Structure formats: structure tokens, C-alpha cells
Amino acid sequence: MISHPSRHCTVELQALPSRIGQVRRIVSAQLRYWHLDPLIDRAALGVTELLSNVHRHARPDKSCVVELELLVDRLTVSVRDHDPRLPVVADAVEDAALSTCGRGLAMVAAMSESWGARPEGEDGKVVWFTLPAPTTARPQPARSPRRTPEQQPAPRRPETHPSPTPITTTPVVTAPVTTAPVVTAPVVAAPAPAVAHAATASPTPARSAVPG
Questions:
Q1: What are phi and psi of 31, to 5 degrees?
Q2: Strand ranges of the sheet holding 74-81, from the earlier edge strand across to the other edge
Q3: Exposure pattern of 33-50 as b/e (b: 16+ CB <10 Å)?
Q4: 65/81 Cα distance (integer angstroms)
Q5: What is the pTM of this model?
Q6: Crossing angle (nearest 10°) for helices 17-33 and 40-57
Q7: Is 89 in contact with 106 (CB distance < 8 Å)?
Q8: What is the mean pLDDT of residues 11-22?
Q9: pLDDT bracket for residue 170 (50, 70, 90)
Q10: What is the radius of gyration, based on Cα positions, of the chain?
């Protein structure tokens, strides 16, 4: 089984010669994914040596777990097996007599920054080594990708807005309303029609022509 969340990778396997080569390729691919190419050769060599020791010496079985952990400034590679006995570094003469699948812990000590082993009680032990992580592999602040000249956006021209056309208000000349004076003609009473009345003369009694 393989699990590899960000900055952490574990591989469970049986430490058999046919599987050791597969794990070596898995480790190389994981470090390449983490941009740790300068550490691939040493890490692959170290994990091969640790798995070879499990294959030769571990009891009662060969099952183990390979773990890669990338911290800020170092890579830690460890192998956990079910044998509680801690390993012992062999001398050069004995190491030369080992099979071609491993050259012992002396090689791990020589090519790593540090190494060690710790017991896990009745569950077995963990053997580990560390390598210094290159500066380029350390977490860096996120940066926006740089654009090539072809990808650079064209400079934006300042937006020009047409000047508002002044609105000329024509003054409305209101002609004064001239009120013609109302001339009231005096009412002249029409003269009453002249009615001539002839004086009525009292009738003079007729006188008798005969002297009385």
C-alpha cells in the first residue's frame, strides 16, 4: 500500500529482493515530485541498504513500512519492521562479504547527515537517516507566475471622457402685459324729447252781438 499526502509518503511491503527494486523506484519518483532531484541517489541507496538488512535479519517476518518525511530543512527516510533487535554497524571486512543487494549500515552512516535506530517496544524498531534538503525545495512564499512578453497585457490607455457640452439657457423674455386703460365714457342722459304743449286758452265766452 502506498500513501503520499503532501510532504509525507509511506510504502508498506515485504522486504523481498523483487520488491526492494520497486520501492527504490517509488522513492526516486516521489523525490522527483518534491523537486528533490539532488537527493535521489543517496536516498535510494540508503533505503536499499535498510530494506536489505530487513530481508537478511528481520524476524519473524519481512513485512515493513518505508516512510519519507520532508521537513523545512531535511528529508527523513525510515524503515519500520517487526524485529525488536537493534542493528549493529558491521566493520569493513564483514561488510565486504555481504551480498550485492546491500552494503550495510556503514554506507548509510557515510552518505547521510545523521542516522539512528529506536525501539518500538514489542512491535519492532525503526531505523532512519536524514539528508539536508536543498534550499529550492523548502517552502517558499507563493508568488504570482511571471508572464512572458507575449502574455503581458497591453497597457491600458487612460479613459477619456468627452467634456459635457455646456447647456446654454436662453433667457425667456417675458413681454410686459400692457393693460389698456379702460376709458369709461360718461353716461350722457339723452335729452328728453321736447314736447310742445300749447297753452290751452280758456275758452272765452262768446259774446252776443246784440247789445244788451
A1: -65, -35
A2: 2-3, 8-14, 63-70, 74-81, 125-132, 114-119
A3: ebebeebbebbbbbbbbb
A4: 7
A5: 0.57
A6: 150
A7: yes
A8: 92
A9: low
A10: 63
